[in-house]
Structure formats: structure tokens, C-alpha cells
Specification:
Lipocalin, 31% strand, five-stranded antiparallel β-sheet, transcription regulation
Length: 1021
């Protein structure tokens, strides 16, 4: 063992509370106290490892210094992929840092010396939720979550894929929480606090699994930190400060039953930090000796307030080494290198020590393949097992095409991994992408310049208000949580490819004041004025809730509205919100006071966490900014009739809700002579209907621009009140008269439809030509939708009809919802009409159905209470740039159900084989649902996820069946019923996309070669 204390690693004599080595081993970070703030510093590892590099003046020792924290920094932790650095401090904040591009070396701000930042790291997000000092932060396996703990007795779990979203807040400790550690298998997170307890939490439901108190009953809150650690095999959890017979120990907690029968003893004062070596070791064999079977063991370092460090092997009863008086003050943190042979230790005295071990001292480390085998034998499956190339590193590649795919994957992984710190100053700058999200940098700059405010002074001179333009971070430092290639395209090309697929909202145009909308509680909420700006900022930082927002400056506005989660497009006023755009909404109530309603709306907007509502707010504001202020473009939602001047803000024209009711007529009296019982009374379903209004208007299309205005009771002729329908298309107006009041209106770029209170439905073209004779409805309309050349009507009698206006044909005729609305408390909460004319109905019980035109029956496409959704584990199969799902009608009806942060995929108590079967069933359900909705993009999206899951699980039988179906017969046959395409997608082109996924696993190289050759043969033919 070699020991080194580099004197140049210092915070100017101030305490260093945390140290962490970068996963690639080229740098390490320290956090502690600065002059008048917290300080985070990044150091070069090369001068620590090699003496010649330390003496070389051309090799920088300090790489970067960050002083953004307002108070002392207590913890720094690198993400597992090395792209991010998280820091927590006494300023109650957690900051996430990312290396910036396009910036050269700079001098440390405020430094009297000529300290230069060789690397530039910027704070990409600040996480604010704690009300006290942040004591520890920890990244979960694969960087899915970031956990932070504080002296406010809480632990906050952050969604690391979508900062600053908070997944949950764990409450249960009654004292200061001072340490966190994740289970390497991914099932638990453990925390230790001053309340004399160590708690283990499940990641499936974020509930407490175990509360261990006995070993800590005699402990006092004398330590600054309590940094516990989990062994790499997941079998043991070792705590910080514990007591045994009034002596300080590090308690060993066994995973099996959380037993506390063993501990590490010998330190004279409280243990502050425990850190396991990331490697698992086995005894080193002497030269020439035959290998002997031996149990693998782990290595653990323990630091204490007694200024001593001990290193233990689980195969020995005594410590491997103990170093006394290593520092002048308490040891605060320990970090191992990823190779397992180096260790950095920091102390409150402001110094750092490096320990270098040899293989003779620790043993031979197990390979990743052997480590994963241990996890599989113990747990069935480990979340760490995602790279099949690691397990098959010795497999011979037989096909050059397979070799090409493997090399492409490695190059892609290296590009996504970010540039590692180099030892010398000659390190090259990272490559800069000339295109961001489908736009060139020049286009982005031009779009920003278009937003500048320019005025004229009295003498005619121009005056331009300065516009702050943040630096465009286009370096190759984007996170890559998965090694798979993106499936869906991005940028303006994508917005053109994904044409509007649905018009969602059962209550098409509820009148509302400017910018109000229903939130998840059913109250009117007003979107914040800066929603559009926030959406653009989120887009720049990569926090995209939908892939259609990847290019805000080029996206077509109407298409953006047509494919939103909660689009209220082409809808009519007066429809009560019992049929709402979001499943499960309560009916809207008319506010008593507009001012108080606005206050309540703002409060609810701030606390609402529903992703669909947030999506609607983003879409609304992005489109709203492109129109005049007096026109509300909420997906075609009703707006006030346009008048000169600014619109009033106190018009809260919310309609009184009419809840769904079931009317049961009284039973007929029985005849005395009959002895048989009468049949049960029939249940009559009633859905809410819109309330007539004097006038309303809506925009039904942007490309071309089509406005629709309705004015009821414009004149009285022969005792009947006439209503006027006016339409403006690209500046050309037309109008027509209707014999009764208009209740609902909807439209698309192809057709317009209006429903009157005499139960007549009229359909016009956008140029004013009547396309169909008036259709007599059995009951008044409850919801009206138009999409492309299709018209859908949901009546108050709970019947649904869909017409193809172009072919003048009924696709669905008076289909009853009786089979769906079977429960007394079940009501319609959502309705959609896709671009292909498929009707979708969402119910308050969380189930969504679409009517299959080919099967002529209702089919279940989503169930928010389905256990398959909660237990399906397909996160490792998601594309890297779209970890939350695709965009389309299926994504709309499922809502947040597929949120990766809520999936119970972290090795729950379900056996692996059962979980595998449930995931397989879920993915096959998704394929069938996308097929029923005729959503080609979503079908392709889930097909590739399905194929990737089969590859990861090694299911060759199903993979071969899938490839056989996509390939079809090689030779033409009259008896073959195989169709070459599905939903407009060529099956063999889909097979070409599936083959690279199969090529990721060397086990299937012969399957890959077989179908690759057949595709090539067909191409030549």
C-alpha cells in the first residue's frame, strides 16, 4: 500500500467535507467551505497518481472552481455516467453541474492569484425543496433518481431525467438525516439520522421497508455526517455511528431479514463514514498453483472521529490495515476509484489523502460478467445488467455486418459519454453540433433577434431594448441513460411527419375567461404568463414533455394543437365539464366571485403536478403568443367575440356542470292475476348537454386559418328565431342562417359541424358549402368532434356516431355506451377522435375504450388500474431521447400511467420470471392498442421497444416469430394472406429497423445473419 497526501489539494485551509472520484478516474471533486461561500472544486487525478505529472508545470492540478453555493458545501457526488456533478450545501440547495462547451480557460472570479479554470462547469439546475441544510446526495443506479437528505428530517427523490421534477418526499425520520445510500440492485434506498434509527425504503412504492433502532439507541448526535454504505453484492448494509456495549462501531445489517448480529469494532470515537469498494474480490492465486474454489468477498473502508482509517475485508475477522493520526481532525468522506485499487479520503482539517493498494493486498477483482452472475443468482436479475456485450465479451463475431453494428454502438456510447478530463492543457475542445433539434445555430440566433423590442423616439431614431441571450450549450455532453438509438425523429421534420392525430376533448369549447382552464381538481386555473417562456427554456435544457416541442420556432401551430395531451380543439361552448379533457375531472362549478376564482386558480396552478395540464399550458401559450391578445387559441377553445380594444378579464363564463345521471322510471303495477315478477326497470343513461349561449367564436384551424362565429337569435322571422353562422377562411368570409339555436360547433381544416337545440346536425365545408343534408339526432348532443374529414357525435342518450363526410358513409351508427357505463359511479371523462376516424371514450374509472371499426365492438386500450402497467419493467428498452413515451392517441388516453418514475420496475417482490411475463404481456397489449387506434407512429415505437425487450431477455423464439411476420414469404404465393404493410408502414422496412436492435446481442448473430441475408436477397430481386 502507498499513501500520499497531496498538499496542493486544499480549500485555502478551510474544511473539506466531501470528496468523490469521477467514474473514469481522470478527476475528482471536493466540496467544503470557501472564503465567504461554499466551494466546489474539480481536480486533476493525474498528478495524484504519477509523481512526474505532479512535477510537470504544464499539467494543471486544479481543473475548475465553482463558488455558486451561498454557504458551506456538505456533499459532492458524480453521476454514474460521469456527465453530471451534484452538490448540496447549507444554503438548502442541491445544484447539478454539467461541463459547458464553447468556453476556453478562464480565471477564477475574485481570486487574487492567477488560478485558471481549465474546464468550465455550469449549474444546469437548482433543486429547491429542503428547508434546512442539505447533508448528503446520492445518485441511483443508472442515474434514474437523485436523492438528497437534510436537517429538515426529510429525504427528497428527484427525477434525474427531468430536473427539477420531484418524485416524492420521504418523511419518517424525527431527527437530522445525515446519510444516504442506494441498494446496488435498485430495490431500496437507506438513510441514517440523528433520531437513533436507520431506515430502509422501497423504491417500488417509496414506503418504509425496515426501521432499525436497536444498535443506535445509545448514540448521540455528535457527528457532522452519518455516511452509510451498501456492499456491491447487495447483501450487507453497513451503517455509520452505532454503539455496542458503550463502544463505537459500524453496524453490519444483513439484507436477509435486516439482522444486526455483526459490526466493525475498534475505533475509539464515533464512525462518521463507511464506503464499500465497488469491486467484489476473490483470493489471489499464487503462481503455478491450481485455482481453488473460494467465496468472493467485499472490501470496506471506515473513517472515524478519532482521525483513523480502517480497511476491512469481509473474508477476514481483523482489519486489513489501520492508519492512525492520518489527519488532525475528523474524517469526513471516502471515495474509491472504479478499479477498486485507489481511495481518496478527506478530513475536516482541509487535507486529502490518497491510498493505493495492490492486487496482492486486496485480491483479484471479479469481472463485470462474474459480478452480474452473482446478482442473477441471488436476485434473479440486476438492474446493472443491461450491456449484453459485457457478458459476451469473449464471443466471436461471425458476421461483418454484426461487427459494424457493434462498433457503431461503441462509437455512439463514447460520443454520448462526454469528453473525459485530460492530463495536459492540450486537451481538445469537444465537437460542436451545428444543428440543435432540427435547427442550425444561425436559425436560432435569427429567431432570437426577431423577438427584440424596437421602438421609435420622438425624433424618429430607433431604440432597441437589449435582449439577454443565454449561451447556446451545444457540446456533446448530453446525458445518455440508455445505449439505444432514438426511435422518433426530432425537430421541424418530426412536427411535419407527426400530423395531428387526434382531437381530444369531450367538452369542446367551454366558455372561459382569457387563459383559464380546468385543472385536476376541476377548478378554473389561469396559466402563468411566463408559461411560454418556461416551455422554451425547458426545451433548451432538454426537459421536453413531448417530442413535438423539439423545435418551437418551426413547429406548425395547428399541428401542435391537434396532437396535444389535453387539446380542446375544434370544440363548442357550453359543454359541461363532466366530459373533460383529462380523465377523472370533477364537474366545473360557476365561480361566485371572478377575483377569488382567479386567486384560487393561481394557487392550484402552482400546486398541480398533472403532466397533462402542464402540457396543455405549454401548448396553449406557445400558440397563443402567435395571435392577437384578444384571441384565445386553446386548441380551438371558445373565445369571447372579438371586439376593439383589450378584452375584459372578469368574464368567468364557466358553465354550470350537469353531472352524469341515471334515470330509472318507476316500475309498472303488476296485475293481480299474474304471479310472475315483472322485468327489472331499464336504466336510462343521460350525459350532460351544452347550455345555449347568445354568441361564441372559436378557431378551428390555423393552416389554413379558419375562424368560426356563432350568434343565436339574430332575428325573428315568422315566429322562429334564426341563428347565424359566420366563417372566415384566410380573410374570406361566408355566412349562413340556421332555424334554431346552435348548441355546439366543431371543425377541422376540411369540415365544419354544428349541432342545434332541435337535435339537427349540419355539416359544411370550410368554404360554406353544405356537404350533407341535416342529420336528425335521437337526443341532444353532448360532445361534438371533427378530425380531418370525420365527424363524431356523442349524444345525451349515451350513443356515439361517426361519419366519413368525404365518402358520405356512417362508420359508427348509434353505438350505445351501455356496456361501458355499467357502474353507478362511472361517467364519461374524456373523448377523442383520431385522424383515422377512430372514436375513443375515457371513463372516470380510469379505463379507456376505442370502437374497433373492423371488429365492430368496444376494445379496451388503457386501464390505469392495470397491474401489468405497475409491474412492467421495460425502462431499459426505452429510447434515450424519449424515456417518457411516444406522442399520439394512445399516449393521450394513458396519460402519466407510463411515467418512468412511477413504474414498479425496480425488482419488486414479484419473481423475475413472473415480472418478465407481465412485461411481455404489457408490451403486446400496447402493440394491439396502437393497432386498434390505427396510430402508425406509436405502433412503430412500441414495436421497437418490444423487440429490444426480447433481445435483452434472450427470447429467441418470439424474436424469430416477429421477424418471420415482418419478412413475410420470400416467394410469391397465391394462397398467402400476408400483407406487406400495416398502418401504412412497410413491414420489411420495420424489419430493417429491428435488425440493428437484434445486433446489439451477440447471442442472436445467427438470427441476425439469417434475416439480413434474406432481406438483401429480396432487395436484389
Amino acid at each position: 500500500m502507498k499513501l500520499l497526501k497531496p498538499s496542493w489539494v486544499s480549500h485555502n485551509g478551510k474544511p473539506i467535507f466531501s470528496v468523490d472520484i469521477h467514474p473514469d478516474g481522470t478527476k475528482f471533486a471536493t466540496g467544503g467551505q470557501g472564503e465567504d461561500s461554499g466551494k466546489v472544486m474539480i481536480w486533476n487525478m493525474a498528478p495524484v497518481l504519477r509523481e512526474e505529472d505532479e512535477k510537470n508545470e504544464n499539467i494543471p492540478k486544479m481543473l475548475c472552481q465553482m463558488d455558486n453555493h451561498l454557504a458551506c458545501v456538505n456533499c459532492v457526488r458524480w453521476s454514474n455516467n460521469g456527465l453530471y456533478l451534484a452538490s448540496g450545501g447549507d444554503d438548502k440547495l442541491v445544484m447539478v453541474w454539467k461541463r459547458a462547451a464553447l468556453i476556453g480557460p478562464s480565471t477564477v472570479f475574485g481570486s487574487s492569484s492567477k488560478l485558471a479554470n481549465v474546464e468550465q462547469w455550469r449549474c444546469v439546475t437548482i433543486l429547491r425543496n429542503h428547508t434546512g441544510d442539505v447533508m448528503d446526495v446520492a445518485w441511483s443506479p443508472h442515474d434514474v433518481w437523485l436523492a438528497s437528505c437534510s436537517v429538515d428530517n426529510t429525504i427528497v427523490i428527484w427525477n434525474a431525467r427531468k430536473f427539477p421534477e420531484m418524485v416524492t418526499c420521504l418523511r419518517g425520520h424525527t431527527g437530522l438525516v445525515k446519510g444516504l445510500t442506494w441498494d446496488p440492485v435498485g430495490k431500496y434506498i437507506a438513510s441514517q439520522a440523528d433520531d437513533h434509527s436507520l431506515k430502509v425504503w422501497r423504491t417500488v412504492d417509496w414506503q418504509m421497508e425496515a426501521n432499525i433502532t436497536k444498535p443506535f439507541s445509545e448514540c448521540g448526535g455528535t457527528t457532522h455526517v452519518l455516511r452509510l454504505s451498501w456492499s456491491p453484492d447487495g447483501q450487507y448494509l453497513v451503517s455509520a455511528h452505532a454503539m455496542n456495549n458503550s463502544g463505537p462501531t459500524a453496524q453490519i445489517v444483513e439484507r436477509d431479514g435486516w439482522k444486526t448480529n455483526m459490526d466493525f469494532v475498534g475505533h475509539r470515537k464515533a464512525v462518521t463514514v463507511v464506503k464499500f469498494n465497488p469491486k467484489i474480490f476473490k483470493k489471489k492465486q499464487k503462481n503455478g498453483s491450481s485455482p481453488k474454489p473460494s467465496c468472493p468477498y467485499c472490501c470496506c473502508a471506515v473513517g472515524s472521529k478519532d482521525r483513523s482509517l480502517s480497511v476491512w475485508l469481509t473474508s477476514l475477522k481483523r482489519p486489513l490495515v489501520v492508519i492512525h493520526d492520518l489527519f488532525d481532525k475528523s474524517i469526513m468522506d471516502i471515495s474509491w476509484t472504479l478499479t477498486g485499487l485507489g481511495m481518496l479520503v478527506c478530513s475536516m482539517d482541509g487535507t486529502v489523502a490518497y491510498l493505493d493498494f495492490s492486487l496482492d493486498e486486496l485480491g483479484d477483482p471479479l469481472s463485470e460478467e462474474e459480478k452480474n452472475t452473482i446478482h442473477q443468482n441471488i436476485y434473479g436479475k440486476s438492474l446493472a445488467i443491461t450491456n449484453t456485450e459485457v457478458q459476451l465479451s469473449t464471443t466471436i463475431i461471425e458476421n461483418p455486418e454484426m461487427l459494424k453494428y457493434q462498433q457503431e454502438r461503441q462509437n455512439s456510447a463514447q460520443n454520448n459519454g462526454g469528453a473525459a478530463a485530460t492530463a495536459g492543457p492540450e486537451s481538445t475542445a469537444p465537437k460542436v453540433n451545428s444543428v440543435m433539434n432540427g435547427e442550425s445555430l444561425e436559425d436560432i440566433r435569427k429567431n432570437l433577434l426577431k423577438k427584440q423590442v424596437e421602438t421609435r423616439t420622438a425624433d424618429g431614431r430607433r431604440r432597441i431594448t437589449p435582449l439577454c441571450i443565454a449561451q447556446l450549450d451545444t457540446g456533446d455532453f448530453s446525458p445518455a441513460l440508455f445505449n439505444s438509438a432514438p426511435i422518433l425523429p426530432s425537430g421541424s421534420s418530426m412536427s411535419n411527419q407527426l400530423a395531428p392525430q387526434l382531437n381530444s376533448d369531450s367538452s369542446p369549447g367551454q366558455p372561459s375567461s382569457l387563459g383559464t382552464r380546468p385543472n385536476q381538481d376541476g377548478a378554473l386555473t389561469s396559466p402563468p404568463a411566463n408559461s411560454a417562456a418556461k416551455a422554451l427554456e425547458d426545451e433548451k435544457d432538454g426537459l421536453k414533455s413531448s417530442l413535438l416541442l423539439t423545435s418551437a420556432s418551426k413547429i406548425e401551430p395547428m399541428k401542435a394543437l391537434d396532437s396535444r395531451f389535453t387539446e380542446r380543439s375544434k370544440a363548442t361552448p357550453g359543454i359541461p365539464s363532466a366530459i373533460s379533457s383529462t380523465a377523472g375531472l370533477a364537474p366545473l362549478e360557476r365561480p361566485k366571485d371572478p377575483v377569488s376564482a382567479l386567486k384560487d386558480a393561481k394557487a392550484k396552478e402552482e400546486t398541480s403536478s398533472d403532466s397533462e395540464d402542464k402540457m396543455a399550458a405549454i401548448n396553449k401559450n406557445l400558440s397563443f403568443a402567435k395571435r392577437k391578445p384578444e384571441t384565445l387559441l386553446d386548441g380551438g377553445e371558445v373565445v369571447e367575440k372579438r371586439k376593439k380594444g383589450r378584452p375584459r378579464k372578469d368574464k368567468m363564463a364557466a358553465t354550470m356542470a350537469q353531472p352524469f345521471t341515471q334515470i330509472t322510471p318507476p316500475p309498472a303495477e303488476r296485475e293481480p292475476s299474474r304471479a310472475v315478477a315483472p322485468p327489472p326497470a331499464a336504466v336510462v343513461l343521460r350525459l350532460p348537454t351544452p347550455t345555449p349561449q347568445k354568441a361564441f367564436s372559436l378557431q378551428v384551424s390555423m393552416e389554413p386559418s379558419v375562424y368560426l362565429e356563432v350568434e343565436n337569435e339574430v332575428s325573428v322571422v315568422a315566429g322562429s328565431k334564426l341563428s347565424q353562422l359566420r366563417c372566415s377562411r384566410d380573410g374570406r368570409d361566408w355566412s349562413t342562417l340556421l332555424p334554431s339555436a346552435v348548441l355546439a360547433a366543431a371543425g377541422s381544416s376540411d369540415v365544419l359541424a354544428v349541432a342545434c337545440d332541435d337535435r339537427m346536425l349540419s355539416v359544411f365545408s370550410c368554404c360554406g358549402r353544405r356537404l350533407l343534408p341535416a342529420i336528425q339526432l335521437a337526443t341532444p348532443v353532448s360532445a361534438l368532434h371533427c378530425s380531418a374529414h370525420f365527424v363524431m357525435v356523442l349524444t345525451a342518450g349515451a350513443t356515439l356516431s361517426v361519419w366519413d363526410v368525404q365518402k358520405q358513409k356512417a362508420l359508427v351508427k348509434n353505438e350505445s355506451l351501455q356496456t361501458l357505463l355499467s357502474g353507478a359511479d362511472t361517467s364519461v371523462s374524456q373523448s377523442l377522435l383520431t385522424q383515422q376516424g377512430v372514436p375513443v371514450v375515457g371513463l372516470s374509472n380510469g379505463k379507456s375504450y376505442c370502437f374497433s371499426l373492423s371488429l365492430e365492438t368496444w376494445t379496451l386500450i388503457a386501464d390505469k388500474g392495470d397491474s401489468l402497467v405497475q409491474c412492467a419493467d421495460f425502462r431499459s428498452c426505452l429510447p434515450s431521447q424519449d424515456a417518457t413515451g411516444s406522442s399520439g392517441p394512445l399516449a393521450v388516453v394513458q396519460g402519466r400511467n407510463l411515467n418512468a418514475g412511477r413504474l414498479a420496475s425496480r425488482l419488486s417482490s414479484t419473481p423475475h420470471h413472473l415480472q418478465q411475463s407481465m412485461t411481455l404481456a404489457f408490451l403486446e397489449n400496447q402493440l394491439a392498442s396502437a393497432l386498434a387506434l390505427q396510430s402508425s407512429q406509436e405502433y412503430r415505437y412500441w414495436l421497437l421497444i418490444y423487440a429490444r425487450f426480447l433481445v435483452i431477455e434472450g427470447s429467441e423464439y418470439r424474436l424469430r416469430e416477429l421477424c418471420k411476420e415482418l419478412l413475410g414469404p420470400v416467394h410469391k404465393s397465391a394462397s398467402s394472406s400476408w400483407q406487406p404493410s400495416t398502418l401504412g408502414l412497410h413491414k420489411r422496412e420495420l424489419l430493417r429497423e429491428v435488425l440493428p436492435v437484434i445486433g446489439e446481442n451477440l447471442r442472436f448473430q445467427r438470427l441476425f445473419t439469417e434475416y439480413q441475408d434474406q432481406l438483401e436477397l429480396l432487395r436484389i430481386k
